[in-house]
Amino acid sequence: MTDHWFDDAAGPVVRPYAMTRGRTRSGAEGAQLDLIALVVAEDLGAAEPEPGSAAGGGLPPHQEDKLLADHSLVPEHLDIVALCRRSPLSVADVAAELDLPVGVVRVLIGDLVEAELVRVTRPVPPAELPDESILREVINGLRAL
Amino acid sequence: MVFGRSKRGDRPAPAEPVTLKILVAGGFGVGKTTLVGAVSEIRPLRTEEVLTEASRPVDSIAGVEAKSTTTVAMDFGRITINDGLVLYLFGTPGQDRFWFLWDELATGALGAVVLADTRRLENSFAAIDYFERRGIPFTVAVNCFDDAERYPVETVREALDLDGGIPVLLCDARQRESARDVLISVVEHAMHTAARAPADR
User: Fold this and answer.
1) What is the pLDDT of residues B99-111, one digit of tens each?
2) Is A1 on the interface with B (CB under 8 A)?
3) Which residues pair with B71 in a beta bridge?
Protein backbone atom coordinates (compact mmCIF):
# COMPACT_ATOMS: atom_id res chain seq x y z
CA MET A 1 0.00 0.00 0.00
CA THR A 2 2.78 2.42 0.82
CA ASP A 3 4.64 2.43 -2.45
CA HIS A 4 1.80 2.89 -4.86
CA TRP A 5 2.61 5.17 -7.74
CA PHE A 6 -0.37 7.50 -7.60
CA ASP A 7 -0.20 10.64 -5.59
CA ASP A 8 -2.50 11.10 -2.63
CA ALA A 9 -5.00 13.09 -4.61
CA ALA A 10 -5.74 10.08 -6.75
CA GLY A 11 -7.04 8.26 -3.70
CA PRO A 12 -6.24 4.76 -2.65
CA VAL A 13 -5.45 2.32 -5.41
CA VAL A 14 -7.30 -0.42 -3.60
CA ARG A 15 -10.79 0.37 -2.46
CA PRO A 16 -10.70 -0.02 1.31
CA TYR A 17 -13.26 -2.77 1.56
CA ALA A 18 -11.28 -4.93 -0.86
CA MET A 19 -9.19 -6.11 2.06
CA THR A 20 -12.29 -7.26 3.87
CA ARG A 21 -13.44 -9.01 0.70
CA GLY A 22 -16.35 -6.66 0.44
CA ARG A 23 -17.70 -7.30 3.90
CA THR A 24 -18.89 -4.25 5.76
CA ARG A 25 -19.91 -6.13 8.89
CA SER A 26 -17.81 -8.60 10.74
CA GLY A 27 -19.20 -12.02 11.26
CA ALA A 28 -18.40 -12.82 14.83
CA GLU A 29 -18.85 -9.98 17.21
CA GLY A 30 -21.70 -8.61 15.13
CA ALA A 31 -22.14 -5.78 17.55
CA GLN A 32 -20.45 -2.56 16.52
CA LEU A 33 -17.16 -2.06 18.22
CA ASP A 34 -16.95 1.20 20.06
CA LEU A 35 -14.27 3.57 18.83
CA ILE A 36 -12.66 3.54 22.26
CA ALA A 37 -12.98 -0.19 22.88
CA LEU A 38 -9.51 -1.60 23.47
CA VAL A 39 -8.01 -4.25 21.24
CA VAL A 40 -5.74 -6.57 23.19
CA ALA A 41 -3.51 -9.09 21.43
CA GLU A 42 -3.94 -12.59 22.77
CA ASP A 43 -0.83 -14.32 23.91
CA LEU A 44 0.25 -16.39 20.94
CA GLY A 45 2.23 -18.70 23.13
CA ALA A 46 5.47 -17.53 21.57
CA ALA A 47 8.22 -15.70 23.34
CA GLU A 48 7.89 -11.96 23.45
CA PRO A 49 9.79 -10.23 20.66
CA GLU A 50 13.31 -9.72 21.86
CA PRO A 51 13.94 -6.16 22.92
CA GLY A 52 15.62 -4.25 20.16
CA SER A 53 15.27 -6.95 17.53
CA ALA A 54 11.78 -6.95 16.08
CA ALA A 55 11.65 -3.19 15.89
CA GLY A 56 8.13 -1.85 15.98
CA GLY A 57 6.78 -4.92 17.71
CA GLY A 58 6.14 -6.82 14.50
CA LEU A 59 5.43 -10.50 14.59
CA PRO A 60 8.33 -12.91 14.32
CA PRO A 61 8.62 -14.04 10.68
CA HIS A 62 7.78 -17.67 11.36
CA GLN A 63 4.60 -16.64 13.11
CA GLU A 64 3.69 -14.28 10.34
CA ASP A 65 4.11 -17.02 7.76
CA LYS A 66 2.03 -19.39 9.80
CA LEU A 67 -0.79 -16.90 10.11
CA LEU A 68 -0.72 -15.87 6.46
CA ALA A 69 -0.76 -19.50 5.37
CA ASP A 70 -4.29 -19.40 6.66
CA HIS A 71 -5.72 -17.59 3.67
CA SER A 72 -8.46 -15.91 5.61
CA LEU A 73 -5.97 -13.35 6.87
CA VAL A 74 -4.52 -10.43 4.94
CA PRO A 75 -1.38 -8.48 5.87
CA GLU A 76 -3.49 -5.75 7.48
CA HIS A 77 -4.75 -8.33 9.97
CA LEU A 78 -1.17 -8.96 11.02
CA ASP A 79 -0.46 -5.25 11.25
CA ILE A 80 -3.25 -4.96 13.78
CA VAL A 81 -2.00 -7.90 15.83
CA ALA A 82 1.53 -6.50 15.77
CA LEU A 83 0.36 -3.05 16.86
CA CYS A 84 -1.71 -4.35 19.71
CA ARG A 85 1.02 -6.64 20.96
CA ARG A 86 2.98 -3.58 21.98
CA SER A 87 0.16 -2.23 24.09
CA PRO A 88 -3.61 -2.40 23.98
CA LEU A 89 -4.97 0.19 21.54
CA SER A 90 -8.42 1.56 20.95
CA VAL A 91 -10.24 0.83 17.70
CA ALA A 92 -9.77 4.50 16.75
CA ASP A 93 -6.04 4.31 17.49
CA VAL A 94 -5.67 1.27 15.27
CA ALA A 95 -7.53 2.97 12.41
CA ALA A 96 -5.50 6.17 12.70
CA GLU A 97 -2.23 4.30 13.09
CA LEU A 98 -2.77 2.12 10.02
CA ASP A 99 -4.53 4.92 8.13
CA LEU A 100 -7.47 2.69 7.38
CA PRO A 101 -11.13 3.64 7.60
CA VAL A 102 -12.79 2.72 10.86
CA GLY A 103 -15.35 0.51 9.15
CA VAL A 104 -12.62 -1.60 7.57
CA VAL A 105 -10.70 -1.88 10.81
CA ARG A 106 -13.85 -3.04 12.60
CA VAL A 107 -14.33 -5.87 10.17
CA LEU A 108 -10.69 -6.91 10.41
CA ILE A 109 -10.77 -6.81 14.21
CA GLY A 110 -13.93 -8.90 14.13
CA ASP A 111 -12.06 -11.51 12.10
CA LEU A 112 -9.20 -11.47 14.57
CA VAL A 113 -11.55 -11.94 17.49
CA GLU A 114 -13.06 -14.90 15.70
CA ALA A 115 -9.58 -16.30 15.08
CA GLU A 116 -8.80 -15.71 18.76
CA LEU A 117 -5.80 -13.58 17.93
CA VAL A 118 -7.14 -10.55 19.77
CA ARG A 119 -9.85 -9.79 22.24
CA VAL A 120 -11.76 -6.58 22.67
CA THR A 121 -12.57 -5.00 25.99
CA ARG A 122 -15.67 -2.91 26.27
CA PRO A 123 -15.23 0.63 27.45
CA VAL A 124 -16.97 1.61 30.65
CA PRO A 125 -20.64 1.82 29.82
CA PRO A 126 -22.13 5.29 30.28
CA ALA A 127 -24.22 4.22 33.25
CA GLU A 128 -20.99 3.52 35.10
CA LEU A 129 -19.22 6.72 34.20
CA PRO A 130 -19.92 8.74 37.30
CA ASP A 131 -17.09 7.20 39.23
CA GLU A 132 -15.72 10.20 41.01
CA SER A 133 -12.24 8.90 41.60
CA ILE A 134 -11.67 8.34 37.89
CA LEU A 135 -13.09 11.70 36.95
CA ARG A 136 -10.91 13.41 39.55
CA GLU A 137 -7.94 11.59 38.11
CA VAL A 138 -8.84 12.95 34.67
CA ILE A 139 -9.19 16.49 36.00
CA ASN A 140 -5.86 16.33 37.80
CA GLY A 141 -4.22 14.85 34.74
CA LEU A 142 -5.58 17.62 32.55
CA ARG A 143 -4.42 20.29 35.00
CA ALA A 144 -0.93 18.86 34.73
CA LEU A 145 -0.91 19.18 30.94
CA MET B 1 -22.78 2.45 43.27
CA VAL B 2 -20.12 -0.11 42.67
CA PHE B 3 -17.87 -0.02 39.65
CA GLY B 4 -15.72 -2.95 38.79
CA ARG B 5 -13.38 -0.93 36.64
CA SER B 6 -12.52 1.48 39.38
CA LYS B 7 -11.17 -1.08 41.81
CA ARG B 8 -7.65 -0.73 40.69
CA GLY B 9 -5.97 -0.45 44.05
CA ASP B 10 -4.67 -3.97 44.15
CA ARG B 11 -3.52 -3.93 40.55
CA PRO B 12 -0.48 -1.71 40.49
CA ALA B 13 -0.12 -1.54 36.72
CA PRO B 14 -3.38 -2.28 34.94
CA ALA B 15 -2.62 -3.76 31.53
CA GLU B 16 -5.69 -2.25 29.99
CA PRO B 17 -6.34 1.40 30.64
CA VAL B 18 -9.77 2.87 31.20
CA THR B 19 -10.77 4.79 28.09
CA LEU B 20 -13.04 7.81 28.09
CA LYS B 21 -14.18 10.09 25.32
CA ILE B 22 -15.20 13.69 24.99
CA LEU B 23 -16.81 15.03 21.84
CA VAL B 24 -15.96 18.40 20.37
CA ALA B 25 -18.89 19.77 18.41
CA GLY B 26 -19.88 23.05 16.83
CA GLY B 27 -20.49 24.62 13.49
CA PHE B 28 -18.19 24.56 10.51
CA GLY B 29 -15.04 26.61 10.96
CA VAL B 30 -15.58 27.30 14.66
CA GLY B 31 -12.22 25.88 15.69
CA LYS B 32 -12.88 22.23 16.58
CA THR B 33 -9.73 21.00 14.90
CA THR B 34 -7.72 23.78 16.49
CA LEU B 35 -8.99 22.93 19.96
CA VAL B 36 -8.33 19.21 19.64
CA GLY B 37 -4.89 19.96 18.25
CA ALA B 38 -4.06 22.36 21.07
CA VAL B 39 -4.33 19.74 23.80
CA SER B 40 -3.56 16.47 22.10
CA GLU B 41 -1.68 14.84 19.35
CA ILE B 42 -4.22 15.11 16.61
CA ARG B 43 -4.68 12.54 13.89
CA PRO B 44 -7.25 12.29 11.17
CA LEU B 45 -9.59 9.36 11.48
CA ARG B 46 -11.27 8.14 8.34
CA THR B 47 -14.56 6.42 8.37
CA GLU B 48 -15.64 4.78 5.20
CA GLU B 49 -19.31 4.70 5.98
CA VAL B 50 -21.89 2.68 4.24
CA LEU B 51 -24.54 5.16 3.28
CA THR B 52 -27.57 5.02 5.47
CA GLU B 53 -31.08 6.37 5.29
CA ALA B 54 -29.90 9.57 6.88
CA SER B 55 -27.71 10.57 4.00
CA ARG B 56 -29.71 9.07 1.19
CA PRO B 57 -31.53 12.23 0.19
CA VAL B 58 -28.20 13.96 -0.31
CA ASP B 59 -26.13 11.22 -1.80
CA SER B 60 -28.05 9.55 -4.54
CA ILE B 61 -27.19 5.90 -4.68
CA ALA B 62 -29.69 4.95 -7.36
CA GLY B 63 -28.31 2.06 -9.33
CA VAL B 64 -25.42 1.34 -6.98
CA GLU B 65 -27.40 0.23 -3.95
CA ALA B 66 -25.25 -2.78 -3.28
CA LYS B 67 -22.01 -1.10 -2.28
CA SER B 68 -22.11 2.52 -1.47
CA THR B 69 -19.75 4.16 0.89
CA THR B 70 -18.72 7.67 1.62
CA THR B 71 -15.58 8.83 3.35
CA VAL B 72 -15.86 11.11 6.34
CA ALA B 73 -12.82 12.50 8.11
CA MET B 74 -12.94 13.27 11.80
CA ASP B 75 -10.42 14.81 14.12
CA PHE B 76 -9.20 12.42 16.71
CA GLY B 77 -6.96 13.23 19.64
CA ARG B 78 -5.56 11.17 22.45
CA ILE B 79 -4.50 12.42 25.87
CA THR B 80 -2.74 9.82 27.97
CA ILE B 81 -3.51 10.83 31.55
CA ASN B 82 -1.48 7.95 32.96
CA ASP B 83 -0.88 4.26 32.33
CA GLY B 84 -4.35 3.40 33.44
CA LEU B 85 -6.35 6.22 31.93
CA VAL B 86 -6.68 7.55 28.40
CA LEU B 87 -8.93 10.37 27.28
CA TYR B 88 -9.94 10.49 23.62
CA LEU B 89 -11.26 13.55 21.85
CA PHE B 90 -13.42 13.30 18.78
CA GLY B 91 -14.22 16.29 16.63
CA THR B 92 -17.68 15.66 15.25
CA PRO B 93 -18.10 16.08 11.53
CA GLY B 94 -19.62 19.49 10.98
CA GLN B 95 -21.90 18.84 8.05
CA ASP B 96 -25.50 18.01 8.81
CA ARG B 97 -25.48 15.06 6.48
CA PHE B 98 -23.19 13.20 8.86
CA TRP B 99 -25.49 13.35 11.83
CA PHE B 100 -25.83 9.60 11.71
CA LEU B 101 -22.21 9.39 12.87
CA TRP B 102 -22.99 11.37 15.97
CA ASP B 103 -25.09 8.69 17.58
CA GLU B 104 -22.20 6.31 17.51
CA LEU B 105 -19.77 8.92 18.80
CA ALA B 106 -22.13 10.03 21.53
CA THR B 107 -22.73 6.57 22.92
CA GLY B 108 -20.79 6.28 26.12
CA ALA B 109 -19.32 9.76 25.87
CA LEU B 110 -18.28 11.33 29.13
CA GLY B 111 -19.34 14.72 27.89
CA ALA B 112 -19.02 17.23 25.11
CA VAL B 113 -17.73 20.65 24.20
CA VAL B 114 -19.92 22.85 22.05
CA LEU B 115 -17.69 25.44 20.47
CA ALA B 116 -19.46 28.63 19.57
CA ASP B 117 -18.60 31.72 17.57
CA THR B 118 -20.52 34.83 18.63
CA ARG B 119 -20.73 35.95 15.00
CA ARG B 120 -22.54 32.76 14.07
CA LEU B 121 -24.16 31.64 17.28
CA GLU B 122 -26.97 29.90 15.45
CA ASN B 123 -24.48 27.34 14.14
CA SER B 124 -24.19 25.85 17.61
CA PHE B 125 -27.93 25.38 18.15
CA ALA B 126 -28.03 21.93 16.58
CA ALA B 127 -25.25 20.55 18.74
CA ILE B 128 -26.69 22.05 21.94
CA ASP B 129 -30.07 20.62 21.11
CA TYR B 130 -28.56 17.23 20.41
CA PHE B 131 -26.66 16.94 23.69
CA GLU B 132 -29.54 18.34 25.72
CA ARG B 133 -31.91 15.74 24.36
CA ARG B 134 -29.51 12.91 24.99
CA GLY B 135 -28.65 14.06 28.48
CA ILE B 136 -24.97 14.30 27.67
CA PRO B 137 -23.21 16.85 29.89
CA PHE B 138 -21.67 19.65 27.85
CA THR B 139 -19.84 22.92 28.22
CA VAL B 140 -20.37 25.78 25.80
CA ALA B 141 -17.02 27.33 24.95
CA VAL B 142 -17.06 30.60 23.05
CA ASN B 143 -14.01 30.67 20.84
CA CYS B 144 -12.86 34.27 20.97
CA PHE B 145 -11.75 35.07 17.47
CA ASP B 146 -9.50 38.09 17.25
CA ASP B 147 -11.87 40.04 15.05
CA ALA B 148 -15.09 39.11 16.83
CA GLU B 149 -16.77 41.30 19.38
CA ARG B 150 -16.53 40.03 22.96
CA TYR B 151 -19.70 39.38 24.89
CA PRO B 152 -20.01 38.50 28.56
CA VAL B 153 -20.81 34.84 29.17
CA GLU B 154 -24.20 35.72 30.62
CA THR B 155 -25.19 37.38 27.37
CA VAL B 156 -24.16 34.28 25.47
CA ARG B 157 -26.03 32.09 27.93
CA GLU B 158 -29.19 34.12 27.38
CA ALA B 159 -28.79 34.17 23.63
CA LEU B 160 -28.48 30.39 23.61
CA ASP B 161 -31.25 29.98 26.17
CA LEU B 162 -29.09 27.69 28.27
CA ASP B 163 -30.02 26.09 31.53
CA GLY B 164 -28.29 27.75 34.50
CA GLY B 165 -26.25 24.66 35.28
CA ILE B 166 -24.52 24.46 31.91
CA PRO B 167 -21.04 25.97 32.04
CA VAL B 168 -20.33 28.72 29.54
CA LEU B 169 -16.83 30.00 29.16
CA LEU B 170 -14.73 32.08 26.85
CA CYS B 171 -11.72 30.41 25.33
CA ASP B 172 -9.00 30.69 22.78
CA ALA B 173 -8.97 27.34 21.03
CA ARG B 174 -5.39 27.92 19.89
CA GLN B 175 -4.07 28.07 23.43
CA ARG B 176 -3.23 24.83 25.15
CA GLU B 177 -4.15 26.12 28.61
CA SER B 178 -7.40 27.54 27.39
CA ALA B 179 -8.41 24.37 25.55
CA ARG B 180 -7.40 22.35 28.60
CA ASP B 181 -9.62 24.46 30.85
CA VAL B 182 -12.54 23.80 28.54
CA LEU B 183 -11.99 20.05 28.90
CA ILE B 184 -11.67 20.33 32.68
CA SER B 185 -14.96 22.19 32.73
CA VAL B 186 -16.62 19.34 30.81
CA VAL B 187 -15.32 16.69 33.21
CA GLU B 188 -16.29 18.75 36.26
CA HIS B 189 -19.72 19.30 34.83
CA ALA B 190 -20.06 15.58 34.10
CA MET B 191 -19.04 14.87 37.68
CA HIS B 192 -21.62 17.26 39.10
CA THR B 193 -24.30 15.96 36.78
CA ALA B 194 -23.53 12.45 37.91
CA ALA B 195 -23.60 13.45 41.56
CA ARG B 196 -26.99 15.10 41.14
CA ALA B 197 -28.57 12.31 39.16
CA PRO B 198 -29.62 9.14 40.92
CA ALA B 199 -27.99 5.83 40.11
CA ASP B 200 -30.42 5.11 37.30
CA ARG B 201 -28.94 7.76 35.04
Assistant:
1) 777 888 888 899 9
2) no
3) B48
Give A38's contacts in chain B (Cβ within 8 Å): 16-17, 19
Q: What pTM was estimated for this model as a whole?
A: 0.80
Nearest chain B CA: its distance from A4 CA (Å): 19
* B residues 85..144 contacting A (CB < 8 A): 85-88, 90, 104-105, 107-110
Q: Residue A70 and residue B159: Cα distance in Å, rounded?
A: 61
Between CA A120 and CA B35 the distance in angstroms is 30
CB of B176 closer than 8 Å to CB of B38: yes
Closest approach of chain A CAs to the CA of B104, in angstroms?
8
CA pair distance B49, B195, nearest whole angstrom: 37
Question: How many residues comprise chain B?
Answer: 201
User: Do the Cβ atoms of A126 and B108 come within 8 Å?
Assistant: yes
Count of other CB atoms within 10 angstroms of residue A41: 21
**For A98-109, how does the pLDDT look when each residue is reduced to its tens digit (9 = 90+)?**
999 888 899 999
Q: Is B61 helix (H, G, I), strand (E, B) or coil?
A: coil
Question: Which of A115, A110, A124 has its CA nearest to residue A71?
Answer: A115
User: Which residues lie below 8 Å from residue A90, measured CB to CB, with a gap of 6+?
Assistant: A35, A36, A37, A38, A39, B19, B86, B88
**A137 vs B contacts (CB less than 8 Å):** 81-82, 85
Query: Which residue ranges form the domains of chain B, and what is each CATH number?
Result: 17-196 (3.40.50.300)
- Selected residues 28-57 of chain A with any CB under 8 Å from a CB in chain B: 32, 34-38, 40
* Beta-sheet strand order (sheet of B18-26): B41-50, B69-82, B85-91, B18-26, B111-116, B138-143, B168-171
Dihedral of CA A98/A103/A106/A107: which sign? negative
